[in-house]
Amino acid sequence: MSDTAQNTQASDAAILPTYARAPVAFERGEGSWLVATDGARYLDFGAGIAVCALGHSHPHMIAELTAQAQKLWHVSNLYHIPQAERLAKRLVETTFADYVFFTNSGVEAVEGAIKTARKYQAASGHPEKFRLITFDGAFHGRTLAGIAAGGNQKYIDGFGPKVDGFDQAPWGDLEAVKALIGPETAGVLVEPIQGEGGVRTPPAGFLRGLREICDQHGLVLVMDEVQSGVGRTGKLFAHEIYGVKPDIMAIAKGIGGGFPLGAFLATREAGKGMVVGSHGTTFGGNPLATACGNAVLDVVLAEGFLDEVQRKGLLLKQRLAQLQDAHPKVIAEIRGEGLFVGVRLRTPNADFAVAARDERMLVIPALDNTIRLLPPLTVSDAELDEAIARLDRACGVAEAKLAAEQKQ
Questions:
Q1: Residue 348, φ and ψ in degrees, nearest 5
Q2: Quick one: 205 and 106 in the same domain?
Q3: What is the pLDDT of residues 299-317, one digit of tens each?
Q4: Does 279 share its domain with 161?
Q5: Are 208 and 243 in contact (CB under 8 A)?
Q6: In what side-by-side order are the strands of the sheet with 26-30?
Q7: Any domain includes 239
Q8: What is the pLDDT of the chain when averaged over all its residues?
C-alpha cells in the first residue's frame, strides 16, 4: 500500500465506515480536472456523481458564491429570501411547475415530493390514497422512505420493517403498473432515466403511457430528476426528451453546481395540499445555496449551452461506439442521453473503474454492470478525446486480465 493510501486510511478512521473509499484525495479542481494531494491530475468523468455541472472552480460560480458569502449566509425560512425567490421564479418559468420548495439534498427533495403526492390525494378527499408505484432498478436516496421506494434489498436489510406505501413494478412494464393500481394508490414515482440502475433509458412510449395511466385513474405522476436534471441530458430536464410532463418533480445535484441544494417542484393542482405548516426546512433555500443555484442557471440557460451539451453527448457516444468496436469483449452496450452516459461491460465494472482510475480518469460504477460517464457539462472536445484514449487503455487492461483468466 502506498504512503498516500495509508495516510488516507488513517485520516479516515474517525468517519463512520460506510464507504469503500478509493485511495486518493483531491485538493483542488480546474474545470474537468481534479488535482490529488500528491499532484496527480485526474480527468473527472464523475463530476461528484453528476453534481459539478459546471466543473470545478467555475469563475462565475466562484464570483457569485464569494459575493453572497460576504453579505449573508443564512436567515431561515421565517423571512423572505430574495435569492430563493428569484431561483424559484426562474425554475417555474422554464418548467411545467407553479411551485418550488427548496431542500438541501436529493433525498429530501424526493421525500418532499412523496409527501406532496400523498397530501394532494388527502386534499382531494382521498386520504386513503398514499401508495406510490415504483420500479425495479430505481434509486431514490437513502432515507427510510427512499430505500423503500427504491426497493433494493441490500439497502433495506437491517433497518427494521420496510416503510409501507410503495409497490414495485418491472421497469418499462405498463401492464404491471396497471395491475398494481388499487384503492390506496396515490401515484407513480419514476426516474425518466435510471442513473444508479445503469443509465437505463425508458422503452418507447413508457413515460407517455405512465402519464396516460395517471390521468385515467386520478393519480399523481412524480418524477425523480435528481441525477438526470439541470442540463445533464442536453435538455433542462430529461422528461422533455420524451414529451411528457410530471405533476411533481424532485431535483438536486446539478442545480447547486457542487453546493448542497435540492428542490421539489409541483403544479398548482398537485401542490394544493401543501399549505402553511405542512412542510418545512431549516437550511433549505438559504441565500448562499440559492445564489449558487442562480449562478448555475445563468450558465445552463444561456443561449446555445444545452445545444452544446447535446452535440458533445452525441460526439461522446460516437467515440464510445468506436471503442466498443475495438473492444467487443469488454464493452457490451452504450446507453444514455447527452452527457448522461452509461457503458455496460462484459467484465466487472468495479475492476474497470479501478483500471480507469489507474489511467487517471474517474468514472462511476452503477447497477447492471455499468459505468457512468458524467463529465461536467462544460467539458471540451479535446477532453472528450482524452477520455476515450484513457478508456481505451483501461479496456486493454480488462482484455489482458480476461485473457489471463481464460488461460488458467
A1: -55, 130
A2: yes
A3: 999 999 999 999 999 999 9
A4: yes
A5: yes
A6: 26-30, 33-36, 41-44, 361-362
A7: yes
A8: 96
Among the residue ranges 157-171, 199-213, 314-328, 393-407, the one predicted with the least confidence is 393-407
Phi-psi region of 253 (alpha: psi -120 to 50; beta: other; left: phi over 0): left
If one counts the domains in the chain, the total is 2
Region label for 100, one of left (φ > 0), alpha (ψ between -120 and 50) or beta (otherwise): beta
Whether residue 194 is found in the same domain as residue 332: no
For residue 16, the one-letter residue type is L
**Mean local confidence (pLDDT), 344-362:** 97
Range of the domain at 67: 60-300
C-alpha cell at 349: 465494472
Rounded average pLDDT over 258-284: 97
**Residue 79 within any structural domain of the chain:** yes
For residue 7, tell me if it sits in a domain.
no
Cell 452535440 locates to 311
Question: 33-42 contacts: CB < 8 A, separation 24 or more?
Answer: 34/362, 36/4, 37/4, 38/4, 40/360, 41/360, 42/357, 42/360, 42/361, 42/362
C-alpha distances out from residue 318 to 50, 179, 209, 363, Å? 21, 39, 30, 18
Q: Which grid coordinates are listed for 321?
A: 461506439
According to the model, what pLDDT value does residue 1 have? Answer: 45
- CA-only gyration radius of the chain, Å: 21
Q: Is residue 214 part of a domain?
A: yes
Q: Which of 212, 187, 211 is nearest to 130 (CA)?
A: 187
Q: Where are the beta strands (DSSP E) in 229-369?
A: 248-251, 262-266, 331-337, 340-345, 361-362, 364-366
Strand runs labelled E in 62-198: 99-103, 131-135, 166-169, 185-190
Q: Could you tell me if 148 and 251 lie in one domain?
A: yes
Q: Is the pLDDT of residue 208 over 60?
A: yes
CATH number of 369's domain: 3.90.1150.10
Same domain for 196 and 74: yes
Q: Quick one: 76 and 175 in the same domain?
A: yes
End-to-end CA distance of the chain: 27
